[in-house]
Structures are given as structure tokens and as C-alpha cells.
Amino acid sequence: MGPGLRRLRSGLGAVGISIKTKLIALVVTSVLITCGLALVAIRTGAELRYITVFAMITTLLITQFVAHGLTAPLDEMNTVAKAISHGDYTRRVSGADRRDELGDLATTINLMADDLEDVDRNRKELVANVSHELRTPIAALRAVLENVVDGVSAADPETMRTALKQTERLSRLVETLLDLSRLDNGVVTLKTRRFEVWPYLSGVLKEANLAAGQRKLPSGSGSHTRKDVHLHLDVSPPELTAQADAERLHQVVANLIDNAVKHSPPHGRVTVRARRGTDAESLVLEVQDEGPGIPRSEWHKVFERFNRGGVPSPHGPGSDGGTGLGLAIARWAVELHGGRIGVAESARGCRILITLPGVPERRG
């Protein structure tokens, strides 16, 4: 009888019967067994007390098997939940394939554990990435200031410019972290306005040219600046206008240009194109470089947090990969407008396509 009841219990779980139905079935089965044994006792003349004891034992055995099927998963869930509360996010609950309330609960706990494991991994990666990014400018700034204090270097304009560059790098990193915090908390609102695209993007490219001229390549690539990369602007029609949050859009375009410049070959070309979209005041932007490009298998990972890309820089492994947050923040800013951003087909290099709607959706 034991193996048969175990098969019955597993069969009930497999066909998707709810716990409430199982309990009702248990009560009905117990009543039927008791009534059946009572009829047997009446017809055979057996003593009712023996039949009663046998009915009770049978009912208790059935109840034990059914109760074990209900309480064993709960005990496992309790153990896994305690492990998760102590920081062990690798534990999972078995029985998620059950088609009842316990199966749903097991699936929910496993999904929760997956999310917590991702959050914990991202937290550790953030701490490691930010620590790595902070170490370089702080060490450089400290060296400059120590040389000035010790009299090794004079506090001339060139020395101060070097210190200023490192301070600006720290400022950019802090601003990135603040944007990440705003992203997570959803406290940013859009301040949209209508503007002319040509002068707007021309200003973004001028700032990018200045930043590229100050960026030096790693020592293994010759220590020259990135003034060799040509930035080209293509807006059609020239009188094109758009409606968006100018500050957020500047953040997106500047970040894409910065990445394109980093991955451009010597004397490469980065092109920024702007076209009118299908709707009034809508805008389609493209940023394209002539670098190694991104494999199609990596397209879905480009805008994920902490993704530094699997494609090596043309300037060697020492190139600055950043925090891996810039493109994630760019995607957030575009989606805040109700737009889309993604990698597009390109015969050469990498081509990022941005589509902004005519009437941005206010989110945040």
C-alpha cells in the first residue's frame, strides 16, 4: 500500500491538483474508507471496534503520506529562505515543476534568489569597477600635489592643468554614479524643449573634440592624443528641429562619441548623422565609427550595466574600458524619452541607432 500511495501522491502533484483539492480528497477518502469498513462489519458480523481501529489506522497512514507531500517542500523552502537571508544566494528550491501552489511558491523563491544573486554580483562589480576607476586619478593627483609640496615641481600652469584633468575625471565618475542612483530611484523627469539639431550637435562635437584631444592612449600605443580621429557631422535637412531634453540627449550623444573615439583606429572617422523620423519633431540619430565593430552575438549585452565589451580596443589591452555604466545610462536616458537605442547593421565598424519620438513620454 505504501508504494501505491507514493505514486498516487506524485501523480496528484503532476496533474496540477491544488492543495485545497488534495485536502478535500483526503477527507472524502477517509470518510469513504470508514463507511466501507462499517458496511463490511455489518454484513460479516465482525466486531465494530476492530473495524473502527483498522479504519483509523488506514486514515492516519493516508494522512501521513499526504501531509509529508505538503510539509516536506515547506521545510526545504524554509531552509533555503534562511540560507538566502544569510547571504547564500546560490541555494534553490526543488519541486518548481509541481503544478500546484507549492510549485508556484518554489518558482517565486527561485526567481527571488536569482534576482538577489544578480544584485549582489552587480554590487560587487560596481565596488570593484569604481575602486579601479578612482585609484588612477587619485594616485595621479596625489603624485602631482606631493611633487608641488616637496618642491620637486613648481605650481606652474602646466602642473595645475594636469591636476585639473584628474579632478575632472573624478567629477565625471561621481556624476556617473549620481546618474546611476537617479536611474535606480526613478526620480528624474524630462525637461523637453524644441531646438535646432545642427547647432546643437555641432556644440556636442566641439566638446568631444576637446575631450578627445586631452585623452592620451596607453603607453603601449605611443602616448599620442586622439586628435587623429576626425569627427564628422551630417544633418539633413540642415534646418532639422527636434523636441527632447537637451541635457539628457547631450549625455547620450557625448557618451556614444567618446566610445566611438576610443575604439577608432589611428586617423579613423566618427560620423554623427541626424535625420527626421516618421513623426513630427521625431529624430533619428546615428553614431558610427570605423573600429573593429561588435559581433552580433554581443549586441544584446552592449547596453547592460558593467559591460565593458568583449571586443579588444585597437590600441591594446591597456585602453581604458571605463566603468561599464555609460551605455546603460545612455539607454536609460533614451528610454526616458520613450525612444529606442540599439546596435544596427554596418558594413564597417560599429553603428549605434537612436530613435526619439515626436512627443516624448514623461517618465521618472
Report what the structure shows.
- The protein has 364 residues and is of the alpha+beta class.
- Among the domains are: 2-86, no CATH class; 188-356, 2-Layer Sandwich (Heat Shock Protein 90), CATH 3.30.565.
- It contains eight helices and seven strands; from the N terminus they run αααααβαββαββαββ.
- The strands form two sheets. It has a five-stranded mixed sheet. A two-stranded antiparallel sheet has the order 1-3.
- Strand 4 (269-276) and strand 5 (283-288) form a beta hairpin.
- The longest helix is centred in the middle third of the chain and has 49 residues, at 101-149.
- The protein is elongated.
Concise account of the structure shown:
The protein is an alpha+beta fold and 364 residues long. Helices cover 55% and strands 12% of the residues. Among the domains are: 2-86, no CATH class; 188-356, Histidine kinase-like ATPase, C-terminal domain (Heat Shock Protein 90).
